[in-house]
Amino acid sequence: MRLTPFSTVLAVATTASLAFLLLPIVAIFAELSPGDLRDGLTSEVTRDALRVTIETNLVAMALIILFGTPTAYLLATRRFRGKALLVTLVELPLVLPPAVAGIGLLAAFGRLGLLGGTLDGLGIDIAFTKVAVVLAITFVASPFYVRTAIAAFEAVDPDLVAASRTLGAGPGRTFARVALPLAGGGLGAGAALAFARGLGEFGATIMFAGSLQGVTQTLSLAVYQEFDVEFDNALAIGALLVVASALILLTAKLVLAWRRSNSTLITASARSVSS
Amino acid sequence: METLQLDLDHGLRTFRLELALTIGAETVALVGPSGAGKSSVLRAVAGLLRPERGFVTLGSQTWLDRRRGIDLPPERRRVGLVFQEYALFPHLDVRRNVAFGARDRRAVSGMLERLRIAHLAGARVTELSGGERQRVALARALAREPDVLLLDEPLSALDAYTRRAVRAELHEFLRELRMPTLLVTHDFEDAATLADRVGVLVDGRVLQLGPPQELVGSPRDPFVASFTGANLLQGVASPGRDGLTEIALDGGGTVWTTEKGSGRVAVAVYPWEVSLSHAVPNDSAVNHVRAPVSSIVSLGNRVRVRVGPLTAEVTASSVTRLALGEGDVVIASFKATGTRLLPMA
Fold it and tell me: What radius of gyration, in Å, describes the C-alpha atoms of chain B?
């Protein structure tokens, strides 16, 4: 490639961007000796936080997939007034400041919140429990899944759905046997993105659920607590989260690439020139 | 075998779809230009489109009756719909595609055999050729054991070579099936080859419905005539000599027809009624058009020669004998009895 002034500018800017983005990640590992890493990962704080993180994220992901998939299918396949508004509302938590999400959840489910009285009457107290962590994660992470799932369902050729119906499959069976398998790649990628967001959830959780070790303290919260107390622990947990996040991102990309290579075949074979 | 009856009235983008059809154990083709509403008819019969008014019945079963508020969903109508681009499920192999709607799973192998795709049972549908895909789509639709078969442009996704072979095969297949079959196509030749009756659909209305030879022999409308491949010469008709009708053509010249008519008309004459010569022949033909040859297209043993406003279809040997070349001025002749007179709207 010839070195023009323009390509020099591009190269310099790219180098600066990469260096800036990678430096903190490199620093985490550079500052950490293998011994510190082992001690940090086996400390009680880390083990508790890992357990809480896994438990709460699994429940949150189950909720997101269980409710998010039908929601996305409805929004992708039905046409009605106000649909664009509804999609925007579903996406809102994406851009909402996490602190606002936290205060909102408190205002809704907290003891003095909108549903607080009702829940109190039932003997249920959500704030500062594991349930609160699950709700916070679900709230901030679900748009990542629903958005991707809507796009995946929209990409399914309507003729394939129509074909399924004329072949005797009702709407439910058509969903399960045609739409779901064809959108599967997109759903997987969406789930991976939501999971990554859930792992990193901090702001809403600390406001709505607090940071109680073994109860509501997730890995992200543990990093925050430990950097005051035991800096190497914070670094070790940070390293763990870097690796986990990278793996999730990689999975999402692989799933999407696989889906794309599949869907070009679908397009070639089933796209119709409507008459 | 039950009879399919439909009566539809539905607003499309720029016109209304208004048509009524009764289809027994036969193949009916709706033929018309793109955007004439052909696919909408099939979708309404299959239950994928709800027309504003009308009904669809099969024998004593009512699939749709807007007045009585009946509209069975597609899965409760026993139709086999073959989509234009076949709409095969890309995530399933050939056998699973065919088995998808099968009433009897044990019949799937037989259906694969019947359409000569048994050797493709495990293949991905994305790896199939156009002709193979069509057979899979047909097998899938028939495995459902439908009472009505609907075909949307069954040959348009195929290349010209495959198309001829598949057309002959499909014709044979439909004849054996003896089931109410409705197909739509934009190609009159496809319709004439495949169907017992052909309806010409333009802007949502059937201009003429009948056996293909009837549409060719006595087109009721200039559009039907041109669609079936006839030459159309426009002009003004008036009573002429010997009891013939004389037509002064818009482009100059005069032709005569045995048909009666007056005012603005179109004279329809089929290419195979037109003969070519170098001098005005001394025979029974009274109509002669003298013009240069603008194109010569060979179709196997037939040759289409464009002479001025006319297309003539003659044998390849005649072209050789007359030593025809583009630019040669020749006489195109046709008999007054070989013409049809159609009033212009």
Answer: 24
| Number of neighbours of residue B115 by Cβ within 10 angstroms | 22
Contact (CB<8Å) B39/A168: no
Cβ separation A165–B74 shorter than 8 A = yes
In this structure, are residues B83 and B137 in contact, taking their beta carbons and an 8 Å threshold?
yes
Pairing mode, strands B27-31 and B197-202: parallel
CATH T-level fold of B230-343: OB fold (Dihydrolipoamide Acetyltransferase, E2P) (2.40.50)
Cβ contact A272–B81 (<8 Å): no
Per residue in A134-192, pLDDT (tens digit) is: 999 999 999 999 999 999 999 999 999 999 999 999 999 999 999 999 999 899 999 99
Q: Is-contact B139 B120, C-beta < 8 A?
A: no
Distant-in-sequence, close-in-space partners of A81: CB < 8 Å, separation ≥ 6 = none
Residues from B contacting A (CB-CB < 8 Å) are 34-35, 38-39, 43, 46-48, 73-75, 77, 79-81, 83-91, 100-101, 103, 125-126, 133, 140-141, 144, 152-153, 186
Q: What homologous superfamily is domain B4-78+147-224 in, according to CATH?
A: P-loop containing nucleotide triphosphate hydrolases (3.40.50.300)
B233: number of CA atoms within 13 Å, CB side?
Answer: 30
With 80 as the cut, is the pLDDT of residue A269 above it?
no
The residue among A135, A60, A140, A138 whose CA lies nearest residue A93 is A140
Residue of A nearest to B152 (CA): A275
Element (H, E) at B206: strand B205-210
Domain-by-domain residue ranges, chain B?
Answer: 4-78+147-224, 230-343
Is residue B71 within a helix (H) or strand (E), and if so which, with residue range?
strand B70-71
Angle at B207 between CA B201 and CA B213, to 5 degrees: 95
Over residues A231-251, the mean pLDDT reads 92
| C-alpha dihedral (A53, A41, A239, A211), degrees to nearest 10 | 40
Mean pLDDT (10-residue bins), chain B, 345 residues: 94 93 96 88 96 96 95 96 95 96 90 93 92 94 95 88 84 90 92 92 93 87 87 91 91 90 90 92 90 87 89 92 91 93 80
For chain A, list the domains and their CATH numbers: 44-268 (1.10.3720.10)
**pLDDT at A262 exceeding the cut of 60:** no
Q: What is this structure's pTM?
A: 0.81
